[in-house]
Design brief:
By secondary structure, the chain is mainly alpha-helical. It is 64% helix and 0% strand. It has 6 helices and no strands. 17% of the residues are buried.
């Protein structure tokens, strides 16, 4: 995962974004994949259980925006990510769902948040 991410960063059409990703990931290559895994697991559990749902949705939106920004644009060297146009459909779909859930206050019913009275208006 780290090698592919760094290759995408090196070939990103926005050199500034590519350098920022490289500076973030390269010195932390040993544990960065585990951070992504933990974040995705926490988001999934938060949304399924309805625990700290607004926070889980904000983290999910952040993750999906970064996935789209990194892998959803045409790289300078197309051989790095030939499927850049079609592989991001799931991220756009999840992003629409997450924004909808966030702005409709979907955690207000049938969630641990509602049972504990968290985030109630």
């Amino acid at each position: 995962m780290v090698g592919w991410t760094l290759a995408l960063a090196d070939n990103h059409p926005s050199p500034t974004y590519g350098r920022a990703i490289r500076r973030l990931i390269e010195p932390n290559a040993a544990w960065f994949p585990y951070l992504i895994l933990a974040a995705e697991l926490a988001v999934g559990l938060g949304m399924v259980l309805g625990l700290l749902t607004p926070l889980a949705l904000l983290v999910a939106i952040f993750l999906n925006l970064n996935y789209i920004a990194l892998a959803g644009v045409r790289p300078r060297d197309i051989s790095v990510n030939k499927a850049y146009q079609c592989e991001q459909g799931q991220n756009w779909t999840m992003l629409v769902v997450e924004v909808t859930l966030l702005f409709t206050g979907a955690w207000a019913a049938f969630s641990i948040d509602s049972l504990l009275g968290l985030f109630s208006s």
